[in-house]
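> example.struct
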């Protein structure tokens, strides 16, 4: 679509056309009318000259006949016979028109032998503005013809008529374009608004040359797109909520069932210390699950509550490794921090980022066979922290789902690992609240690798 212009520009163009087109048409009609009237006058003079070519002034009857024929044409005349001096003047004149004027004056030097009836009523000289004077020399006659001028009113009428016709045509074009570029788009906008109100959010872009109308159309299209995105997000959130309710019910039912069975066994005196340990483990698991659920729900608005300060990435990695060391030692896992470049810093909440890294380490320790490595480096203006383990890695079908809350897989949700299914989801939410993200992948050499990417604090 061509570039849209403001309605002010289009209105100015329309006003200019409404003025210029009739004016130009009127001027053209005035000029054409002048040429047409000049042609008519020339034709009338030629007709009068044709009458004189075969005329003779010898008798009164002949003169009367010439007078009547000229009067019928509306032409007045003063004529006399040509003289020898006049012929000599014609032969010696430099131009034909000068020769004709000299011959006419010499022929009329004496009393004219032929005067048309108009001279008997004061002559055309008294009304000279209504006649065009033309000297003629035809055969044995010479003199002046008075040809009536064409009416100026007719010329004005033609010019005004052409101007009005052009004005009408210009207004018709303006109305057609106004209807196409403004009225029809506005009607379509009204229809689109009604469709949006009815829940139909598939709105096409609006073709128009008027910038203001195009802006309204773009705003309406953007609103429809935003509502569509919001509806999809709401549908996805509702789906996630239902899934989480179902998953939470399942996760709560299993430890509660075990806890209840252990307590009933102890109550009936058939249990031993093993039943008590199992009950305590399930109670601790329930406590972690409830705590993670509470944390996950709060992180929906985490970015608004985060205080962004400069955080040393090396110190953060070492602190996370120290916090996770007891868990690693209990599982017989070696935890190493190596390959951390010096001077790395990000902006964020140190405690929140520590929670992210701790969750990644906890997941790696629970699924690794005996070694977990933490590293960090700078890449393309961002800081990348990597947590790698030597476990079986992620199942290929699970890679796109491992960060979903309460996602179930044989690896990540096995009861033996003790996980709640929310650690990675919490870590990703916190990372995105800091303007970063987390990606999961399988290392070609074996094991899983989780990469936390955050914007670097220094350029």
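> example.seq
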């Amino acid at each position: 679509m061509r570039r849209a212009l403001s309605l002010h520009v289009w209105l100015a163009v329309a006003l200019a056309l409404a003025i210029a087109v009739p004016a130009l048409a009127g001027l053209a009609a005035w000029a054409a009318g002048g040429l047409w009237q000049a042609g008519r006058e020339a034709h009338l003079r030629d007709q009068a000259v044709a009458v004189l070519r075969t005329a003779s002034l010898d008798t009164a009857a002949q003169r009367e006949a010439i007078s009547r024929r000229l009067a019928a044409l509306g032409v007045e005349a003063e004529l006399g016979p040509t003289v020898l001096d006049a012929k000599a003047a014609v032969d010696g004149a430099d131009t034909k028109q000068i020769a004709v004027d000299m011959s006419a004056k010499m022929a009329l030097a004496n009393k004219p032998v032929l005067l048309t009836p108009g001279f008997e009523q004061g002559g055309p000289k008294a009304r000279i503005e209504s006649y065009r004077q033309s000297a003629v020399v035809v055969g044995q006659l010479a003199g002046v013809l008075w040809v009536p001028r064409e009416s100026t009113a007719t010329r004005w009428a033609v010019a005004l008529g052409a101007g009005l016709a052009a004005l009408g045509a210009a207004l018709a074009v303006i109305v057609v374009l106004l209807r196409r570029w403004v009225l029809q788009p506005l009607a379509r906008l009204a229809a689109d608004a009604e469709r949006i109100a009815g829940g139909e959010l598939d709105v096409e872009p609006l073709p128009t040359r008027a910038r203001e109308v195009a802006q309204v159309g773009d705003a309406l299209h953007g609103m429809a797109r935003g509502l569509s995105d919001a509806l999809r997000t709401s549908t996805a959130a509702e789906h996630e909520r239902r899934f989480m309710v179902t998953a939470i019910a399942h996760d709560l039912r299993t430890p509660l069932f075990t806890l209840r069975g252990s307590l009933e066994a102890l109550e009936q005196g058939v249990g031993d210390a093993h039943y008590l340990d199992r009950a305590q483990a399930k109670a601790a698991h329930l406590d972690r699950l409830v705590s993670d659920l509470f944390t996950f729900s709060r992180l929906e608005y985490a970015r608004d509550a985060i205080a962004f300060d400069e955080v040393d990435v090396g110190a953060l990695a070492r602190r996370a490794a120290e916090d996770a060391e007891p868990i690693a030692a209990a599982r017989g896992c070696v935890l190493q921090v190596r390959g951390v470049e010096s001077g790395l810093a990000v902006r964020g909440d140190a405690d929140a980022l520590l929670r992210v890294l701790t969750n990644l380490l906890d997941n790696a320790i629970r699924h690794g066979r005996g070694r977990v490595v933490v590293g960090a480096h700078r890449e393309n203006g961002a800081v990348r922290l990597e947590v790698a383990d030597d476990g079986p890695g992620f199942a290929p079908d699970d890679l796109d789902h491992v960060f979903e809350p309460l996602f179930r897989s044989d690896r990540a949700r096995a009861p033996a690992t003790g996980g709640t299914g929310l650690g990675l989801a919490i870590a990703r939410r916190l990372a995105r609240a800091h303007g970063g993200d987390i990606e999961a992948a399988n290392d070609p050499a074996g094991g899983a690798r989780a990469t936390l990417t955050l914007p670097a604090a220094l350029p």
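> remarks
The CA atoms of residues 131 and 148 lie 4 Å apart.
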